[in-house]
Amino acid sequence: MDADRPALRLFVLHHAGGSHLLYRNWPAGLPHTWDVRLLDAPGHGLYLDLPQITDAGRLADVLLDGIEPELTCPYALFGHSMGALLTYEITRRAVDRGLPPPVWAGLSARSAPQSAGPGRSYHELPDAELRTRLRLLGGTPDEVFDDPGLWDLFEPIIRADLRLVETWRPAPATRPLPVALSAFAGAADRSASPRRMAGWAAHTEHFLGLRVLDGGHFYFQDDPAPLLGLIERDATAALHAAGAAPAF
């Protein structure tokens, strides 16, 4: 792969309270001609020392500013849970700014806005209930729960991210994205069920479909290969369909 001109540059956006670490093996499971970038939001992962951003729109702006110099080739976005709504917001902002849009966006485990409902404010749960909720969802290493020092470090980060997710609403009267989009759901995910994920079809002009995989909210945690295969298939199809799209 020519590092300056990969076939596709894929940006992966992590879940609430997470970082790039859960996705660290993904580049090896995707085509070698792709440049896979695992992003960390400020206050997470490699940027744990930076102030956390608790507003979805502002965070999307910061992340887009960060990747804008890298939009020199066809690119795609994939986000899981909190990362899915950030993927949507970054895509919308790229279009609004007149930047090259992604050829494809993948949204995983985040209900479409019109399907989400009021829900419960998990960011306000008492400590014990929040721990139980997070254990059921998966995605948080056991050592975070078992080590009081780690929990004290990550609890405010997790709560702030959950508040971001639970209070996010897309801007009113937004038009469907002119970008190919796929939705991904765990068959047993109660927080972002396949039915609720299907609603993303209304937010794009080019819906590639709802992909349902076995498992819950973190359906890919034990074996990401099925998901990575679908990402490769859908992003490649979108890339080929965009062959006559604007030059980078």
SSE topology sketch:
Layout: E1 8-13, E2 34-39, H1 56-67, E3 75-80, H2 82-97, E4 104-108, H3 113-116, H4 127-137, H5 142-146, H6 148-167, E5 177-186, H7 194-197, E6 204-213, H8 225-241
Parallel strand pairs: 1-2, 1-3, 3-4, 4-5, 5-6
Helix pairs in contact: 1-2
State the CATH superfamily name. Alpha/Beta hydrolase fold, catalytic domain
How many β-strand runs?
6
User: Stretches where pLDDT falls below 50 for ≥5 residues?
Assistant: 244-248
Number of contiguous helices:
8
On the 0 to 100 scale, the average pLDDT is 91
Task: Examine the secondary-structure arrangement and name the CATH architecture.
Answer: 3-Layer(aba) Sandwich
Distance between the termini: 17 Å
Reading off the top of the CATH hierarchy, the class is best stated as Alpha Beta
The largest sheet is: 6 strands, parallel
Spatial strand order of the main sheet: 2-1-3-4-5-6
Q: Give the topology string: H per helix, E per strand.
A: EEHEHEHHHHEHEH
Please state the overall shape, judged from the principal axes of the Cα atoms. globular
Description:
With 248 residues, the protein is of the alpha/beta class. It has a single domain, classed as Alpha/Beta hydrolase fold, catalytic domain (Rossmann fold, 3-Layer(aba) Sandwich). The chain is 36% helix and 17% strand. The chain has a six-stranded parallel sheet, sandwiched between helices. α1 packs across α2. The radius of gyration is 17 Å and the shape is globular. The two termini are 17 Å apart. The relative contact order is 0.16.
